[in-house]
Give the backbone structure.
Amino acid sequence: MSEPRPNTARKSSQRSIDAPFCRGAVGLLLVLSLLALPAQSAAAQTTPPPLTTKARQAILIDADSGAMLFQHNADDRMSPASMSKLMTLAVIFKALKAGQVKLETEFLMTPYAWRKGGAPSRTSAMFVPVGTREPLEQLLQGIVVESGNDAAIAVAEGIGGTELGFARMMTEEAQRLGMKRSVFKNATGLYDPEHLTTARDLAMLARHLIRDYPDHYPRFAQKEFQYRKHLFRNRNPLLASGIGVDGLKTGSIKESGYGMVASAKQDNRRLILVVNGLDRQEDRKSEATRLLEWGFKNFTEYRLFDAGEVVGSARVWGGARMYVPLTGNGAVNVILPRAPANPRLKAEIVYKGPLKTPIKQGDAVATLRVSSGGQTINELPLYAAEDVEGAGALKRGIDSFLHMAFRWLL
């Protein structure tokens, strides 16, 4: 973790980030100087080289902050193949957390699940015999390690009534998580023209699994699984690569090529990568390795504001005061290139404004969006630093007049 920037630079940058006027949902645009950030050694004074990829779709983000380090067609809708089993698992983990099922709960391998995803399907399967009941603990290992389609369908039918019913649950959960461009039609990722997602949505999903289900995330690092006479080895080729990969899921179908959602941790920093549309397994492994290593090498964490320091302010409608000061939840840190040659940041405070009272200290009311030359985009929540109570009718009337007449441009 880098040292905080000097106090001499703090005052000017703090004043420049104030956003007293709200233009729709966006606060005042500003430019900050990286001179306010920690000094790096002369050897680090470089800008990450331009990056390209063989993947048709790709995105690389920082897991903790959500900062986007690289993207390529990240919002193009694509067939996710078995990477969509991450959403299958998200729904299962949610049911486990809610107590709707337990790891000991047994699920039936129905004729439908066996035909569509088992041995007769000639797809990746756990090979559970038809008519057999297996505990969820076993089936989860089959889904994660072997990408068993039969196991995924059996659990989907048990929880959702039918696979299609479970797929609707998947889509609903995706929408709740903000995966706005994702629609799921099955629990496996087998091809369906309407079964679509994006690289950005999959990265968002991976981040959700890592953050919200820490007890289950270690499952993705399981290297092998024995079921009856079958020994399955994890299909993730990067688990033994030595670059810190400990999840998540591969996928491939002829309609979309080879893809992978991977997460790696080095020196307390975690990155999440999604690639898809590669022509060969070898390309998938090499591209994923190269992009992750590039991210760890060329980016680091900087501190913009200390814990409790006011980042800026937001306009309030009908309040006892016109503006509410904004702070981060602790220190405000961003992921940026290591001391780029052009030391300038662009930042904006974004909120749906003007804010309405009452506002309580600690309410999440805005977002700080920070970017560096188009290379990284950080979005961090901002919180009200103080309570703001409602004002009387006269003050509300004046605020309404100002809003209608001038749209806050005063």
